[in-house]
Structure formats: C-alpha cells, structure tokens
C-alpha cells in the first residue's frame, strides 16, 4: 500500500534499475558535519539501520541500542554491499578495523551522535519535496490504525507515502522519510515516542502541515510519570507550526483545552459530533460498522468503537486534504487490520487478537468490544502484562483487573508476573467465573485448551513483549503468524 522505495537486487538490470542516489558520501558528510574516510564519491541509494537490510548503495547507520550495538555489524553491512557507514566518533577504532577487514571498500563517516545525524539526513531529504503535504498523527492509542485509515482514504485518488507498520520512532520515522519521492502528493506519518523530548525531534524532522492527536492516555506513563507530562510531550507535534498549519484534537479528550492553548496555528476538533458529515454508525459486531457519512453509507470493517473513532479521525484528515467523499468511503472500506491489532480469527473458536500493545485504556476498550457482542458461546479474556507503566504499574494492573471482574467474561486468564495484582483485583470484585493467573505459557495454553468449547470467543490482549499471539497460533492451526 505504501509507495516505498524498492530495494535493489544484487544485479540491477535495464528492467530493474537501481534507485536514484539520495546523496553522495561527501554531500551526506556536509549535511551532518561528519569526518569522511574513504571515497567521497560513494553514492548512497538507501539508508538502513539493520545490516541484514544492507545492499548495494546502502548507507548503514550504526546505532547503539539497549540490546545490541550497530557498530558490531559494520563489517557485515559492508560485506553485503553497503557503500557507506555512519559511525560514532568514539567507536572509530572498531569501525576502521571492520572496514579494513572488509577490504576498505566503501566510505566511513564519523559523527558524535549517529541518531542525530540520521535525523538531519532525513530532514534534508524531506525538504527536497516542498510541495508534499504532510499529515502527522500521534496519541496514546489508535495512532497506527488512524494512520492506516487516513492513508487508505486519502490514497484512493492521490499518490500517498506513509510509514509501514509502526515505524514511528526517532529511528523508524527517520528511516521511513527516505521513502518520499517526487511523485508523492501527500505523506501520512505516524509519530510515536517513548522518551522525553522525542516528539520534538520527530516534529523537527517531519514538520507536519496537518497534525492530529488521537487521545491522551496512559501509554508510556512509566517513562513520563503522569498524563499531564504525556500531554506536554504529545503537544510537541504542533511545535513546528508557524501559523499556517492546523491541528486536530479529540472532542472528548480531558486535555483538549491544554492541547489547544498557545499553538501557532488553528486547532480544531474531531469526533462523532464535530467531524463534518458524520451522521452515525450501526454496529455490526465483529464485522465492523455501517457508517453514514456525507450522504453515503459504507461498511467500515474494523470492529470496536475505538476503531470507529480512528476512522472518524481519518475522515476529518481526509476532508482537510480535499479528498472526495466517494474516495474516502472506498478507502475506508478497504482497510484491514494489521498484525495483532483488532484481528478477527475464525475457526473452532473465534479469537480477537489484539496483542500488539496494551495500556489500561486499550485493554478496557478491547473488553468493551467483546462485552458488546451478542455471543452464543462463552467468553474467555486472556489479559497479559502491560509494560512500560513504571511506578503506575501496580495501580493500573489493579484497575484493569477490577474492570475485567465486572466484564461479561465467563473466564479470565491473567498472564505475566505483573498481572498478579489484576488477578487479585478481579477476585476481589466478586468475579464468579473461572479465574486463572499464570506465568508459564505452556501451562496457560494447556489450561485454555482444556476449558474452551467450540463456538467460544477468546480475547487476547497484552503488550507485545508478552508474545501472546502464540496462543492464537496454537488454538487455531494455520492462524496467520507475524511476518
């Protein structure tokens, strides 16, 4: 769906030419203030931060991380054909040793901070397309679905570029910017954050013309400390406005007034009451909604009121880009869930696989969806740990457990050490169904299999690190796994 720059094959041909150069090594060095070692004429046709994606003409950016350090893969990137390596000055000896081992082919660029250099290169590339209208989307939850919906709606009649999956971070967004090309008319980019100051960096790289904040919730509260601090960070998506741009905030957000205050540009609202032309939607259960908008009725296929709100946000964005109503409707009809995001898997059991990420708001929304269904079978809600909640973890897991105890579930399975407090809260709430807490996946799987009967409904909701999608794959043979 995205118009991304294709990766070159090992042997470009007339039918499969290599992509046009993004920079040469000397030009890249000038942009980031790098010291250059090697051939300044090396052409850079792609930018990667994973040596496994390196190919002829690639610039490999060596980024230090929590689990691994890209400088350990410099030789592998060069051996795969990378033309250039961007490395930190304090790793110079390591990078030059790898360069020598690779036959001194390619070019080395040394900078104090490779992440900052990557961002500067991305910003420079983006600025080459001043006519490209840029839509930015952030929020505590719903931003990926909103981005997919907006890209589908706007892209029905225009050339749209957008970041794949949730490549929305200081690294992911910057890498995605290099997919922008002269043929694109609109960019739709999701902008995420998991540290203080990150949204300001993303706004500097991307500089949206139109920016939407889906909501202010509790995602990453363990990093920022409070919803107020989350609101301050998310508001930085407006920080590059100069008076010509427009922001959108949810009509029912508790931080709406704060988000609007002091922004250099217009800030409007979106939602079921304020998005022009939205006249309501009929809930079709797991088949989504029949939406009445601007005189058209169409089927939006994602289930759940939270997903409908994401579609309404996409309508508001598409309106402002000038997308015809018919194109918006056709685009939203074509939307399909991404892996682990409100996927409906049907087999002996029906599974709602919503385990790409989790925070208290999204867990309650997922349970609300399953509660709302007129279901003949029983309901099993499997709730895994919510990560990155920091000091709020205990209270937020207890909150979710209490809500689960009041739900329509016939059985509640809590998975992960952090969910012990949720289990206790559900029990204290008077829940009368089967209540299980487990930290071992194999035992969780076996207990679920023993309890389930054909026709039952299963909700899987957890943070990505819990890998709860494995349960779907064991309950429904052939269920699509993550690619």
CATH superfamily of the largest domain: Mur-like, catalytic domain
Structural class per helix/strand content? alpha/beta
Low-confidence segments, given as residue ranges, are 1-14
Radius of gyration: 24 Å
Give me the oligomer status.
single chain
Overview of the molecule:
With 483 residues, this protein is an alpha/beta fold. It folds into 3 domains: 23-114, MurE/MurF, N-terminal domain (Udp-n-acetylmuramoylalanyl-d-glutamate--2,6- Diaminopimelate Ligase, Chain: A, domain 1); 129-333, UDP-N-acetylmuramoyl-L-alanine:D-glutamate ligase; 343-475, Alpha-Beta Complex (Protein-Tyrosine Phosphatase, Chain A), CATH 3.90.190. Helix content is 33%, strand content 20%. It is built from 17 helices and 22 strands. Strands 9-10-8-11-12-13 form a 6-stranded parallel sheet. β5 (58-61), α2 and β6 form a beta-alpha-beta unit. It is globular, with a radius of gyration of 24 Å. The two termini are 16 Å apart.
What are its keywords?
alpha/beta, globular, 3 domains, single chain, 483 residues, Protein-Tyrosine Phosphatase, Chain A, 33% helix, six-stranded parallel beta sheet, UDP-N-acetylmuramoyl-L-alanine:D-glutamate ligase, six-stranded mixed beta sheet, Udp-n-acetylmuramoylalanyl-d-glutamate--2,6- Diaminopimelate Ligase, Chain: A, domain 1
Summarize the structure.
The chain is an alpha/beta fold and 483 residues long. Helices cover 33% and strands 20% of the residues.
Strands, helices and their partners?
Elements: E1 23-24, H1 25-32, E2 35-38, E3 43-44, E4 46-48, E5 58-61, H2 74-79, E6 84-88, H3 92-101, E7 107-111, H4 114-126, E8 133-138, H5 143-154, E9 160-162, H6 172-177, E10 186-190, H7 198-206, E11 210-213, H8 221-224, H9 227-235, E12 246-250, H10 256-260, E13 266-270, E14 278-283, E15 289-293, E16 296-300, H11 305-321, H12 325-333, E17 343-346, E18 350-354, H13 360-372, E19 379-384, H14 393-405, E20 411-415, H15 420-428, E21 434-438, H16 441-451, E22 457-461, H17 469-475
Parallel strand pairs: 4-5, 5-6, 6-7, 8-10, 8-11, 9-10, 11-12, 12-13, 18-22, 19-20, 19-22, 20-21
Antiparallel strand pairs: 1-3, 2-7, 14-15, 15-16, 17-18
